[in-house]
Amino acid sequence: MDDGRPGVGALVTDAQFVDLTAAGFGPDMLTLIERFDELGPNIRALESETHYRRSLDAVRLRAPIPRPRRNIFCVGKNYHSHAVEFSRSGFDASGKGDDESPEYPIFFSKPPSVVVAPGDVINAGLDPLQSVDYEGELAVVVGRSGRVQGIDDAMSYVFGYTVFNDVTSRHLQKRHKQWLLGKGIDTFGPMGPAIVTRDELPNLGDSRIRTWVNGQLRQSARLGDMIFDIPRLIREIGQVIRLEPGDVIATGTPVGVGIGFSPPKFLREGDRIRIAIDGVGTLENTVG
Fold it and tell me: How many domains is the chain built from?
């Protein structure tokens, strides 16, 4: 917040937010998510008042969940065109055919230490093989705890959505034939700028995700083009792993990543990546 301490706020305009921490609604986003059923109506009412309003110019945005409690759940090959792109790139160590899309969702994880805020630097120097790539993605934030049963409404577990960049060392990803090291490098998970609650985006599938590198449009797709939709992903994870409030599920990237070009277009120091999702927001970071 403007006194240098971290806090949580609710956006009311493009330039203003309500200081929820000052208003007594909790010190951080994880607490707010856990108590949102209780606090939500009071927060909505507070948004129409002016006493706790602050200017965005007076604060520095952190990631909405600066330090997730556990690893981020991530999904690979969740758009048909990207599945083909990845298979043909020469970086897919699975040995599958060019046109193969997965029969079941492919899950991997990134440790909490990957998360950085909008405007923060992606430390490409931590990739010893200089093969850093971008992946613009929608991230789902879980809002309730439990193991997902067959009769459950999977979407009832969704608190909201944010933007995520699944930054990757392609050579490490290929070398180790699994994705933890290539995906889990510190700073390789920019997130933000905010969480939009599920009720604000009832037609999420119609939204588009776009990624620019240095102003050049690289990725553009409908979220509805995912192979496995959000309810399917929640069910696949939640039937075997108990979900917790604040869990993050990165839902996969569309076609247009750096390894889809010949030769690959890896990120370099000074590059700027901008990812925008209709109704969710825009995430920008530079490479250092």
Answer: 2
Range of the domain at 254: 72-287
pTM for the model: 0.96
The predicted pLDDT at position 257 comes to 98
Per-residue model confidence as pLDDT tens digits over 37-68: 999 999 999 988 889 999 999 999 999 999 99
Measured CA to CA, the distance from residue 26 to residue 49 in angstroms comes to 18
CA 113 → CA 72, 117, 129, 147, 244, distances in Å?
Answer: 10, 12, 20, 26, 18
Q: Has residue 65 been placed in a domain?
A: no
- Spell out the residues 6+ positions from residue 121 whose beta carbon is closer than 8 angstroms to its own: 187, 285, 286, 287, 288
Q: Are residues 28 and 107 in the same domain?
A: no
Give the count of alpha carbons within 13 A of 212, CB side only: 11
CA–CA separation, 280 and 288 (whole Å): 26
Cα 118 to Cα 33, 187, 239, distances in angstroms: 20, 11, 33
Query: How crowded is residue 186: how many other Cβ atoms within 10 Å of its Cβ?
Result: 13
Residues 242 and 276 placed together within one structural domain of the fold: yes
